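Input chain follows. Return structure tokens only.
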Amino acid sequence: MSKVLAAGFRVVVLIVYTLFSVFPLFYMILNSFKSDADTFTTFVVFRPTLDNYRAVFGDGTFVHALGNTLVVSALAVAVALVVGVPTAYALARFTFKGREDIAFTILSFRFAPGLLIAMPLYVIYQHIGLFDSVLGLVWVYQLIALPLIVWVLRSYFEGVSIEVEQAAHVDGYTRLGAFWKIVLPLIRPGLVASALLAFIFCWNEFTFPLVLAGANVPMVTVQSLNFFSSNVIHYGQLCSAALISALPEFILALLIQRHLVRGLSLGTIKG
């Protein structure tokens, strides 16, 4: 009987926790179909309307911001992977003077507050012509994506036994061939997980696009501020914009959830 009660208690706790976790999303979905008046006067019983979504998609500005955010985030992650994967491999496989100093320096990119970095970069970008440009945002987003990818993948490379590469060398593979044909497939779950996490962090970034971008390259996080005004906050439109902006991340996570779960749960790979 005690085991049945304990199992029932766990089920109740899980249900309560699930409801608690899902409630903000449920509340946002409800508000996205409410008028501004219904937002404050009723909770469940209301007349649904699509006016909030029409307002969000109305002039195409928000759609343009979504496209910019997708392009900038994808390019930033791609550049971080090109630079970060060999960097993580070198830090994991080779022993050289200053190795840990280099690794700590890469990690330290995430230490400083974004606003502290963005203000000097604003002056620099104005002088070199990178202000309000895709290239400028991709460059500064390396401060977000690169440390994450390097430090996550370094642990995965360290988890691959060196004997695996040595066996590949015996079979005639060069170091580059063994890295490309043997090691990378073994760390694929970690590669996918780190890339997705870096993409999410870049997608959700607010400070850098607020300071370093403008009308030419609007980003979705900054564009959401348009639903605020000095007199009123359009909560329905704000919830609609938030749901739409979260949709690409949600779809991407669903498409690669198998690799994502493996990458986040395994941690290391035993050779």
